[in-house]
Amino acid sequence: MERSRARRLVELLAEGEIETHPETSRQQALVDEERRVRFELATVHNQLLRAPEDETVPEVTVRHLAARERHLEDELDRAADRLRTAFPAYAQLRYPEPLSLSEVQQSLDRGTLLLTYEATGDEALVAAVRRTKCAMVWLGCTPSQLKELLDVAIGAYWDGEEGGPDAQQAQRRLAEFLVDPVPEASSTGFSGWLSPRAVP
Question: Taking a C-beta distance cutoff of 8 angstroms, is the pair 141, 124 a contact?
């Protein structure tokens, strides 16, 4: 639940303003309403994430915030639906519809292997997708192990420094976990996409 909230908050805050101008007052009103709901939802998410760290926040407040969060998520879904009808150009940019598996496969070159990772709870897995086939493979590690390795593997780079032997070892270990379980990944010419959901 907390991981889901954190992920949703990142999504909400990462969404910048879209340069698509409403052509009617109805479109402008819908965009204004959607922005208001999105901002309030991000605020509630932030309050919920901080609540466990603040012992002065009563449990009834947390329950109220959780209920408000659910209400706002439903309200945002309804706002998106209204925008898809009245202002499709904006909705397509703000709320793009996800591709189906067959649509993804059709977009791949014959020599391309797409890897997307999922890490939830105590399980981590990779989906390997080619133009004509796909497979789901369990990884030999937990999300917490992946996070620890990622912190070591790229921590120095975030600080503007070069990674030392520990970082190199962590990178090799990550490759063993993330790529080695997929036999086809060792062949030449594949594309990989690390899903944000892969980070616990």
Answer: yes
Question: Cα–Cα distance between 118 and 99 in angstroms, integer?
Answer: 17
Please give the backbone phi and psi of residue 97, each rounded to the nearest 5 degrees, phi first.
-75, 130
pTM over the 0.90 mark: no
**Burial class for 27, CB neighbours closer than 10 Å (0-12, 13-18, 19+):** middle
* Torsion, Cα of 44, 49, 54, 58 (10° steps): 50
DSSP state of 189: S
Which ranges of the chain does DSSP label H, i.e. alpha helix?
2-14, 25-50, 59-86, 88-94, 101-107, 143-158, 165-178
- Distances in Å between the alpha carbon of 38 and those of 69, 101, 194? 11, 29, 26
Predicted pLDDT at 52:
82
Higher pLDDT, 83 or 150: 83
Mean pLDDT to the nearest integer, 6-28: 65
Please give the pLDDT value at position 163: 78
Report the number of secondary-structure helices (H) and strands (E) in the chain. 7, 4
What does the pLDDT average to over 56-74? 92
Distance from C-alpha of 87 to C-alpha of 46, rounded to nearest angstrom? 29
Provide the pLDDT for residue 6: 42
Q: Transcribe 50-62 into DSSP letters.
A: HGGG-TTS-HHHH
